[in-house]
Amino acid sequence: MGIIKELFYLRKSDRKVILTLLCVIAVALGVIFLTGGNSESNELTPADTLRKETTQRDTFHRRPYREYNKTVYVRTKVVYRDTTYRRGKALSEEEYDSIKAHYQVKIKPGEHVVLNTADTTMLKTVPGIGPYYAKKIVDYGQRLGGYVSVDQLDEIEGFPLDAKEYLTIEGATPHKLNVNSLSLNELKRHPYINFYRAKAITDYRRLHGPLRSLNDLRLSKDFPPETIKRLEPYVEF
């Protein structure tokens, strides 16, 4: 109480300075009291950093399987024998066929598969031929009406030519087209007869009557000698 009484005997300016200092001290003590219980800083200690990294690693492993698998899938290389493919890249049917061909039981050199009687299962035993080309061979043979030469496989785009030595023709009896009775649309279904060749046949029949031989069409620009020779096994009159 004595200190307070003495305060009133001081000059007015001195009292203002003392009161201001007391207010500042009081505010400082209040701030310390309010924030003193939270001593943690915003900076991470080494232990905090370790906990953070562990949490991130655990979160990565807890991601949905599909997302995690996708990341690994894109960055991984897979080697199939002597050819390397990236898993993130879609394989073409020919590339996939080549891979499948490596891992199937194959016939040995000197053994043969009869081309016109083999199904896709038998064709897949030929070295270099997988499901894709086996189906191509069967489909093209059906369109032709049967193979008369192994070299006709060259007409299949991208066909592995080394596989031809394992294939053979025995007793070829191709299906024949009657060029004097079939319509234009029926004729052009054959791989060797396009629209213009079919039209040349029907025009000749209309103007000159039935054909006796493909040589009757030799004057047409659509029937050069090589076309006539290739088509002869598949026509009748």
What keyword list fits this structure?
two-stranded parallel sheet; two-stranded antiparallel ribbon; 10 helices; mainly alpha; 237 residues
Q: What does this protein look like?
A:
- The structure is a single chain.
- With 237 residues, the chain is mainly α.
- Helices cover 47% and strands 7% of the residues.
- The strands form 3 sheets. It has a two-stranded antiparallel ribbon with strand order 1-2. Strands 3-4 form a two-stranded parallel ribbon.
- A hairpin with a 2-residue loop joins β1 (77-80) and β2.
- The longest helix is centred in the N-terminal third of the chain and has 24 residues, at 12-35.
- The N and C termini lie far apart (140 Å).
- Residues 65-87 have low confidence and may be disordered.
Q: Roughly what fraction of the amino acids lie in strands?
A: 5-15%
Rounded Rg: 45 Å
Spatial shape: elongated
The overall pLDDT, averaged over residues, is: 79
Give me the secondary-structure category: mainly alpha
Q: Spans with pLDDT under 50 lasting ≥5 residues?
A: 65-87
Sequence of strands across the biggest β-sheet: 1-2
H/E series, N to C? HHHHEEHEHHEEHHHE
Oligomer: single chain
Distance from N terminus to C terminus (CA atoms, Å) equals 140 Å
The largest sheet, given as strand count, sense and whether it forms a barrel, is: 2 strands, antiparallel
Percent of residues in helices comes to 40-55%
Number of strands: 6
Please, how many helices?
10
